[in-house]
């Protein structure tokens, strides 16, 4: 089946996607997972070339996009650090994007300046997938988060989700907030006062009378169905002393989970620094490594959809 509604579309923000579109992506990802598990590959894009432009550090996102492209039979060209591209010579991102758009059928872009993913997409006629836009959005992460929640809990509807840690600079929680909205969530925002959610999210929540509670105490966050821990985003701080003061604000331990809510689903986009202690990894509800694994199927789905593949 060819699903042409996504063909040539940019994937920039989860706020742009309707409930139905989100579910089409998740259902397509399930097909991809089935196909890979049965056959190892799913060669729907064997005539496509995908450019991976990663101008900020990345392990999971870059490798899972590369793995996704290869399992779809596509070829890839890539830049894996800003220092190895002409951006280091002073070339603007706009020029780089225009040039790369002439080589490839789709661009996957990660870069450090919020707003530049949308600006870059506006310059080209091939689809651009935002793989991290500074402290802005990271929509493909949120999609794999939804996929994981649905897989682990059987539903996305009416869940209580606690977002914990660096809510100011953490782009994954911004995207996850918007991705969950069509499913009627309740939120707990747990952050130090200095790292609360940005104004646009708080305003959106207030205007739409969303059930949001705010806390600085990790224990309060454990009242949710899902706890989504995040790393304090060192690279976004202008004042490193402030980072040092805040970096260990929250550490989720096995003892705390077992005492307060042993049924809570534990997620993290990774990399973790210190936010989840190692003894949590053995809990059945610790989903973060499965979550990272799911990223490949979700990214396969996105590449196949924006490139107009004929999906079995
Ligand atoms: C996240 C990111 O890059 O925003 N990582 C990821 O893509 N899984 C989270 C982070 O870096 O803290």
Could you characterize what this model shows?
With about 300 residues, the protein is α/β, with parallel strands linked by helices. The relative contact order is 0.17. It starts with 18 loop residues before the first helix and ends in a 6-residue tail after the last helix. The mean pLDDT is about 95. Helix 1 packs across helix 5 (about 140-155) and helix 5 crosses helix 11. The chain has helices at about 20-40, 60-70, 95-100, 115-120, 140-155, 170-180, 200-205, 220, 240-245, 255-260, 290-305, and strands at about 50-55, 75-80, 105-110, 130-135, 160-165, 185-190, 210-215, 225-230, 265. The strands form 2 sheets. Strands 7-6-5-8-9 form a 5-stranded parallel sheet. A 4-stranded parallel sheet has the order 2-1-3-4, with helices on both faces. The protein is globular, with a radius of gyration of 19 Å. It has 2 domains: about 15-140 and about 295-305, Rossmann fold; about 140-290, Aspartate/ornithine carbamoyltransferase (Rossmann fold). Strand 1, helix 2 (about 60-70) and strand 2 (about 75-80) form a beta-alpha-beta unit. The chain contains 11 helices and 9 strands. N-carbamoyl-L-aspartate binds near residues 231 and 269.
Topology:
Layout: H1 19-39, E1 49-54, H2 60-71, E2 75-79, H3 93-101, E3 106-111, H4 116-121, E4 128-133, H5 139-153, E5 160-164, H6 171-180, E6 186-190, H7 199-207, E7 212-215, H8 218-221, E8 226-229, H9 240-246, H10 254-260, E9 265-267, H11 288-306
Parallel strand pairs: 1-2, 1-3, 3-4, 5-6, 5-8, 6-7, 8-9
Helix pairs in contact: 1-5, 1-11, 2-11, 5-6, 5-11
Bound molecules: N-carbamoyl-L-aspartate.
